[in-house]
Design a protein that fits this description.
globular; 215 residues; 11% strand; disordered C terminus; Uracil-DNA Glycosylase, subunit E; alpha/beta; 9 helices
Length: 215
Amino acid sequence: MTVAPETEREMDELCAEVRACRRCALAETRRLAVPGEGPLDAEVMLIGEAPGVNEDRQGRPFVGPAGAFLEELLAEAGLGRPEVYICNVLKCRPPGNRDPLPGEIEACGGYLGAQLRLIDPLLVVTLGRYSMSRFFPNQAISRIHGRAREVRGRLVVPMYHPAAALHQQRLRGVIVDDFRTLPGLLEGARAARAESAPAAAGEAPARQMNLFGQS
């Protein structure tokens, strides 16, 4: 799919704004902000929580041990890193890798919203509880991980953060199994978008596929 020049320009401007951002106190402690990376026509968008020490040094998301495991997980789903868009809820590393604070999440919220609009992915994969909370507030990741739901017209599947498996080996198999569901979810999302195109053009829509199963 060809990406419109306007979209490329707007994303370039957004990334430049993130790199120079002073919206919260994290600007005082970061080395490099981490806007995100990947093709602007990506069908899959992965949203983590916040940059770590390696990301802070390189200005890229998921480049440390958790990033290496993420690439293994993508391979389990038949995907490669160059095919997906990867970003975080926070664009700057919290000191000591502490949890994001509410004010920091709010300060970065507009950036993530713009990325979702510009990429317009078929499937969003949230990695960890802070990115999950943007789409599934007041939920526990242990209860809903791997269960795709439509949220504001977009298919979203919450998953554990890859770093969780590095600290709790028992979660490794759970995360691998969740990622193995992505090909089927992606095919369903493609079919749903294809069905919606005639409806948008004023034609009678075909019967919509049940992507999500029973609640």
